[in-house]
Design brief:
EF-hand-dom_pair; 56% helix; 8 strands; four-stranded antiparallel beta sheet; alpha+beta; calcium
Length: 372
């Protein structure tokens, strides 16, 4: 990422490292006004409290800022939305006051700022310059030929289908915004494909030589489209190597504080015992302090977590005492750490930004009254 970013002209790269969030929450007057405007925006019935229904847009924006899929599309991540809502309501209330809203929002924003400081988000303006450099560069033919070799059954598919899949395998490093984004496909790639149609090979299978030739023609036209309609992409690269867990576990005060916070709102039976069913919920609360993403955010990480649960036999619904629950949760963290130390997980994320970024996410974008 650094090599790619360094090629860009000054002004085409913006790094979001959480400093804007810290600036917001660090100024009590400004933050109070922000909360006031956000609260009034959500309080549709103007009763001075937020109902569960009125909180939904804020919860959805927080989920999006965490990189989660939309609520209702993934059972693995839906419980995270539920837990965010519980943070506001403490799992009991049906209405949230402005004071409670401010307190929880502050905690969430501080967590987001810490995450962005650790893993900054780079805002890239993709105007075709990097794509043109890639197409005319020495590695172009070898990389595109490699992509062609990875495409399944090319001899049974049309050249058009193969070209679309090949663009999907390129990244921002080659100057291509994610074509999986519907806006990018409909406004950048599809118009070029339609203009390219009608050639002798377009709707028929093609050999590698023909593909390389035709793909270059399409790529150069995409360069022209990007010059006309630049695309803004939020790009981040994170490597999870267990170091965050190691730091947490090495600080007894911090791990005790984190575990106590994770268990604070978990239901208990009359003997004060907690069901092991809530271990995943508790792990989600601990994750930000351990340098991890919530369960459901990354498939590779979910596999590591599942393996850790198996290693400590944590998936049975047995009721255990609080200290035993903390011990098992600590063992799970240790197992995840060892797995990541042996096989770090690197994740690259690219999201198309469809409107200017005043702050780091939709959650933080000012309402019209703040803009004024």
């Amino acid at each position: 990422m650094e090599g790619n970013s360094s090629k860009r002209k000054s002004g085409e790269v913006v790094v979001l490292d959480g400093s804007n969030i810290m600036e917001l929450v660090g100024n009590e007057q400004v933050f109070s006004k922000f909360v006031e405007n956000k609260f009034n925006e959500l309080d549709r019935d103007r009763d001075g409290e937020l109902s569960l229904k009125e909180l939904e847009p804020a919860v959805a924006d927080i989920g999006a800022a965490l990189g989660l899929p939309a609520q209702g599309t993934s059972p693995d991540s839906d419980h995270i939305y539920y837990e965010v809502l519980n943070e506001f309501t403490h799992g009991k209330q049906e209405k949230v006051s402005k004071t409670e809203f401010k307190e929880v929002l502050l905690d969430i924003l501080l967590g987001m700022a810490a995450g962005m400081k650790r893993d900054p988000i780079v805002i890239l303006r993709m105007d075709g310059e990097d794509l043109l450099e890639f197409v005319n560069g020495p590695s172009y033919e070898a990389e595109i030929a490699s992509i062609f070799s990875m495409i399944e059954s090319p001899n049974n598919r049309s050249l058009c289908e193969i070209v679309i899949e090949a663009f999907g395998r390129l990244t921002v490093d080659q100057g291509i915004p994610p074509t999986s984004d519907s806006w990018v496909f409909n406004n950048i790639l599809e118009p070029v494909l339609l203009s390219q149609g009608g050639g002798p090979y377009w709707d028929k299978p093609a050999c590698e030589e023909t593909f390389l030739e035709e793909f270059k023609k399409v790529a150069l036209r995409v360069v022209d489209r990007l010059k006309e309609q630049p695309v803004i992409v939020a790009h981040s690269e994170n490597t999870f190597d267990g170091s965050g867990i190691k730091r947490l576990l090495s600080n007894k005060f911090e791990i005790d504080k984190t575990l106590n916070s994770a268990l604070e709102n978990l239901p208990r039976d009359r003997n004060g015992k907690i069901s092991k069913d809530y271990l995943r919920v508790a792990l989600d609360v601990v994750s930000p302090s351990a340098g991890l993403l919530p369960v459901g955010a990354i498939q590779e990480m979910d596999k590591v977590i599942s393996e850790a649960f198996k290693m400590v036999n944590a998936d049975d619904p047995k009721m255990v005492k609080e200290e035993e629950f903390k011990k098992i949760l600590t063992e799970i963290l240790g197992s995840i750490m060892l797995q990541l130390e042996g096989n770090p997980i690197s994740v690259s994320s690219n999201s198309v930004v469809h409107e200017p970024l005043g702050l780091s996410s939709k959650l933080l974008q000012p309402s019209s009254s703040e803009t004024a």
